[in-house]
Design brief:
The complex is a heterodimer of chains A (758) and B (165). Chain A has 758 residues and is α+β, with helices and mostly antiparallel strands. In chain A, 28% of the residues lie in helices and 25% in strands. The longest helix of chain A is centred in the C-terminal third of the chain and has 27 residues. The chains are: A alpha+beta (758), B alpha+beta (165). Chains A and B meet through helix 1 and helix 17 of A and helix 2, helix 3, helix 4 and helix 5 of B.
């Protein structure tokens, strides 16, 4: 049921693109202020140690050094995104008493230039007492393992259980039960812009922080609490952001240090991380150990699933609790499981903290789901496509305690992708060494669970309408490169019958834009901020309709509309006026008061996880060189359901980008660790796919309309982080007989498997 | 000991004293405030810092400032003919959706400029090969490849006209 739109769904270039194209867009590190100091962080070289002493005296006396801080200079207040459960807040901006991973921050220096700051770091003397470290979930959860946080003696910081139906009875009634253990590895967000933050103290003592973040509001609140200040004493401005993918969705040490040191020195302070620091100590996708048991009837009907996941969280919780929570939900999505049990454990290790990354637990959880579906299909003698169709969730399905699925294009996606890839034919006829495989996904359109314990709406918008025919949209929603500013402008222009050129936007400045927005993550922005914009726009329309109705003395039964820059009667367009004129009428009637409206969106009564689900299916065709073990992905086909496509090029760009990331996850990318140390800390050794590595790709948008979404839209591009790895993995199996249960799929693993076979 | 260097950037002449270890990237961004050129890795792997030195693309993060003495440099700020117009390559990047976060864009446009100055109508494979020193995490490269094809067409359409004048 596609609706007719004028601007939504049309090929509209991103409105920030010309500025970016000419190199005029300012990212955090592009900014400098008079008197600005340059900050650097001292990081732990040890994975686990007690800090016996830190001597900063030599560093502090180096000419040009203006400030050196350690934990002793901070209020020692912990922070973490799960404000709802303060126990989970386990991180200090600078290490107190103990370091827990290689790269853990101990001290910060601010100096007149970068070279001096760097030199000062080398003059800081730290005495450690080394402690034994643990580097994987098995050794960390073993009784007697070294304790990483004293409050958590078993190193298991989060336990999450889900249960519905009777799983044991389900297995006893199953004709076929399959049990497998999967391990998945750590990968980096590898956003192109290294993190950066610049802080300045205003005249009234307020701190303004420009920072490379996905979550200005969260940074504002947590920075305030960590420094013992009030929220309104902090102003966070998000400049242009060079990508995030989940890696910039928390308060970070350098933000705290920049703010604190700006306060201490009275001068602006900027920190910018090096790429090496990003790889060495930056957030990453959770490695996991996944144990999954599924039961089927002979005809392929799913009966039960028992899922146990251990997340290797690294040294701090970060967004691990959410990932733990969501892994269990993703495990129950996609297919109908009448009986389901999940146990997730978030386990501390002496490694850099893992956190949110595109998919938020889904790429790991669904890898297990999808590979097991393929194994089961083969052993039950059912085509993998047919087995999926048999069990696929459909609109109206209930996931107990979680949600009722509203719009759902999953079945259509599976059929479409099978069709366009020539699945049935190729599955039978491909030559040895060639293979075709399938992977599917379901994903959330933003979260419902208020772990941040915000006291404000989940998203808000303010619209100011002007008599010159323009409107100004203010929103805290954060464009981090995904294009939300453009999408929100499109939604607003559509609703108010205006052109894109009529809309001005100010976004993501916590002192200017309406409270609040939880940020850009979990594919929440289009649905939540989009709904807030619509809410405000409808209030503006009510004012305009009243004024026009009075001016033309319209019968109360007349319906009015905003269309083509006019506000007019639906049946008689002559009864109407230009948008600007209508605004002027409202303003006159209110004796000069500007026409302003606020809107908001908070999901209520939407279960526990999300207001709307996106779906899709992907097929990969590969050729494997049996001499070298190299996998050549020859073609990808994708069919997906994101509801109404608001900006087609942005959606296609998201899709292609997620294939790049999925390809890397499957075949080439991996943070190689040894004793808690990340060995590949540069792009040459962290092999993310280049332009020459990308397979040709075909895409079909399955037509659905999401009733909860703005103009029918929901999640796009994040769910697609999941299907690529299982699709490629299944194709490799089809080509070679090697079934990968420990990502990534490397040539060595393929060759070893082939040798074993021979 | 600082070294004195003279060079031209986007048509403007500069005369600077620089420390011998300072990179061209630092001098462009910090001394000349030409921040359109980015720094993505500092090891020459990502391509975000690419600029033209005497008509050849280089990683400005690996190029010492002292080595560009007497040379002519072009950066992303020197591509568009004015504040109101874009270079055809930039126009094509905007049109095709090749820009998401925009952090790799300047480097990509430099790569396109270099490629199209040597090969006016490259194939898809030649374009991809031409981008091989450049990383992008947002787009999956497809729309960037499209942009360069579109730019090649735009530029070959406008070329004969200019010659006639």
């Amino acid at each position: 049921m596609m609706k007719q739109f004028n601007i939504v769904g049309k090929d509209i270039p991103r409105t920030d693109a010309p500025t970016k194209a000419r190199g005029a867009a300012l990212y955090t590190d592009d900014m400098k202020l008079p008197g600005m100091l340059h900050g650097r962080l001292l990081r732990s070289p040890l994975p686990h140690a007690l800090i016996k002493n830190i001597d900063t005296s030599r560093a502090a006396s180096l000419p040009g050094v203006k400030c050196v801080i350690t934990a002793e200079d901070t209020p020692k207040i912990k922070y973490g995104n799960w404000r709802l459960f303060p126990d989970t807040q386990d991180e200090y901006p600078l290490a107190v008493d103990k370091v827990r991973f290689i790269g853990d921050e101990l001290a910060a220096v601010a100096a007149v230039d970068k070279d001096t700051a760097e030199e000062a770091l080398e003059l800081i003397k730290v005495e450690y007492e080394e402690l034994p470290g643990v580097f994987d979930v098995d050794s960390a959860s073993r009784p007697g393992a070294p304790i990483i946080h004293y409050y958590c003696p078993n190193n298991i910081s989060v336990n999450r259980k889900i249960k519905y139906g009777d799983v044991d009875k389900g297995f006893s009634e199953s004709d076929y039960v399959r049990e497998d253990t999967f391990t998945v590895h750590a990968v980096s967000h590898a956003y192109l812009e290294p993190c950066s933050a610049l802080a300045q103290v205003d005249l009234d003592g307020r701190i303004t922080l420009w920072t490379s973040t996905q979550v200005p509001y969260i940074v504002q609140c947590l920075l305030a609490s960590t420094l013992g200040m009030r929220e309104n004493d902090i102003r966070v401005i998000k400049p242009f952001i060079g990508g995030g993918f989940g890696g910039k969705m928390e308060l970070r040490t350098w933000e705290v240090c920049a703010a604190l040191m700006a306060k201490k020195t009275g001068r602006p302070v900027k920190f910018t991380l090096s790429r090496e620091e990003e790889f060495l100590a930056g957030r990453r996708r959770h490695p996991m150990k996944i144990h999954s048991k599924v039961g089927f009837k002979k005809d392929g009907t799913l009966v039960a699933k028992d899922l146990k996941i251990q997340l290797d969280g690294g040294a701090y919780n970060a967004m691990g609790p959410t990932a733990t929570f969501l892994c269990g939900n993703f495990g129950a999505m996609l297919y109908r499981y009448p009986n389901y049990r999940f146990h997730g454990e978030h386990i501390y290790t002496n490694k850099p903290p893992a956190s949110a990354m595109r998919g938020f637990g889904a790429p790991q959880s669904l890898y297990a789901t999808e590979i097991q579906m393929n194994i089961a299909a083969e052993e039950l003698g059912i085509d993998p496509v047919d087995l999926r169709l048999k069990n696929a969730q459909v609109s109206g399905d209930k996931i107990p305690d979680v949600a009722t699925i509203s719009s759902c294009g999953f079945v259509d996606s599976i059929k479409a992708v099978a069709d366009m890839s020539g699945w049935k034919e190729k599955r039978k006829s491909l030559k040895p060494g060639q293979g075709i495989g399938i992977g599917c996904y379901s994903f959330i359109s933003g979260g419902v669970f208020n772990w941040f314990n915000t006291q404000y709406p989940f998203s808000a918008a303010e619209i100011r309408a002007f008599s010159d025919g323009t409107v100004h949209l203010l929103t805290m929603a954060s464009d981090i490169g995904q294009g939300s500013d453009t999408v929100l402008k499109q939604i607003l222009a559509e609703e108010l019958g205006l052109a894109m050129e009529d809309i001005r936007i100010t976004s993501a400045d916590t002192s200017m834009t309406p409270q609040a927005d939880l940020g850009s993550w979990g594919s929440r922005v289009t649905l939540m901020a989009g709904n807030a914009v619509l809410d405000a726009a409808r209030k503006i329309k009510e004012h305009l309709f009243g004024a026009v109705s009075a001016r033309f003395n319209l019968n109360v039964i007349h319906e009015l509309e905003c269309k083509n820059g006019r506000v007019q009667s639906k049946v008689k367009a002559d009864y109407g006026t230009s948008f600007g004129e209508a605004v002027a009428m409202v303003q006159k009637a209110n004796r000069g008061e500007p026409l302003v409206a606020r809107g908001s969106y908070t999901p209520r009564d939407k279960g526990l996880v999300t207001p709307a689900f996106g779906f899709g299916a992907q097929v990969a065709e590969v050729e494997v060189d049996k001499e070298t073990g190299l996998v050549n992905v020859k073609q990808m086909w994708t069919a997906h359901d994101c509801g109404t496509v608001i900006n087609p090029r942005s959606v296609e760009g998201q899709l292609a980008g997620s294939i790049q990331m999925g390809l890397g996850y499957a075949l080439s990318e991996q943070l190689v660790m040894e004793g808690g140390n990340t060995l590949n800390t540069n792009f040459a050794d962290y092999k993310m796919p280049m332009a020459t590595d990308m397979p040709p790709s075909k895409v079909v948008h399955v037509d659905t309309y999401e009733p909860e979404g703005p103009m029918g839209a929901k999640e796009a591009g994040e769910g697609l982080a999941s299907p690529t790895a299982p699709a490629i993995s299944d194709a490799v199996y089809h080509a070679t007989g090697y079934r990968c249960k420990d990502l990534p799929i490397t040539p060595e693993k393929i060759l070893q498997a082939l040798e074993k076979e021979e | 000991m600082k070294h004195h260097i003279n060079f031209t950037v986007n048509g403007d002449k500069y005369s600077l004293a620089v420390d011998p270890w300072r990179t061209l990237n630092e001098v462009l961004r910090e001394d000349l405030n030409l921040t359109g050129t980015k720094l993505g890795c500092g090891t020459g792997d990502c391509g975000a810092c690419t600029v033209m030195v005497d008509g050849r693309t280089v990683s400005s993060c690996l190029t010492l400032a002292v080595s560009v003495d007497g040379k002519t440099i072009r950066t992303v700020e020197g591509m568009a003919p004015s504040g109101e117009e874009l270079h055809p390559i930039q126009e094509a990047f905007v049109q095709t959706g090749a820009i998401q976060c925009g952090f790799c864009t300047a480097g990509m446009e430099m790569a396109a400029l270099h490629l199209l100055s040597h090969n006016a109508s490259p194939t898809q494979a030649e374009i991809r090969a031409g981008l091989s020193g450049h990383l992008c995490r947002c787009t999956g490269y497809n729309q960037i490849v499209d942009a360069i094809s579109v730019a090649a067409e735009k530029m070959s359409e406008s070329r004969p006209e200019k010659e006639e004048r």
